[in-house]
Amino acid sequence: MILRTLLRLIGEVAAWTALVVVISTALMTAAGLVSARIAQVPRRLIIGMTIGGALVAAGLSHRLGLPELFVIDIGRRPLPVAWVVAGSVLGIAAAWLVRRRSQA
Predict the structure, then answer these.
(1) pLDDT for 58-97, tens place per residue?
(2) Domain map (residue ranges) of the chain
(3) In this structure, what DSSP letter does residue 70 have?
(4) What is d(CA 96, CA 45) in angstroms, rounded to the nearest whole number?
């Protein structure tokens, strides 16, 4: 019983995290195609900042009780897609700014 519950929880968390990564990667790829400046940022930096921004935004939106405009339920864990997108975009912008400052 406990093992089954634990495995279900791990599966939900893995699915939730995978969806965050997919959304973040799609936005990162789109940003790289739109702007040559983003394409110059090291991939490790932009991947980390994009996924990190998405996870932070999702967590903060839940903790602060911010309105969730579009939610996908994965098991019992809601995924606030709008906040994940916003966090990803902020992560991309932060990676670009960090890279820009290091070049100056």
Answers:
(1) 888 888 888 888 888 877 778 888 888 899 888 888 888 8
(2) 2-103
(3) S
(4) 9
Decide: 58 and 79 in contact? Cβ < 8 Å.
yes
Q: Where are the beta strands (DSSP E) in 1-104?
A: 71-74, 77-80
Helical residues (DSSP H) of the chain, grouped into ranges: 2-34, 36-39, 43-64, 81-103
* CB-based contact 61:91 (threshold 8 Å): no
What is d(CA 24, CA 46) in angstroms, rounded to the nearest whole number?
Answer: 10
Contact present, 74 and 14 (Cβ < 8 Å): no
Q: What is the pTM of this model?
A: 0.76
Other CB atoms within 10 Å distance of the CB of residue 92: 23
Picking from 94, 81, 82, the residue whose alpha carbon sits closest to that of residue 48 is: 94
Strand-pair partners of 102? none
CA distance 42 to 62: 31
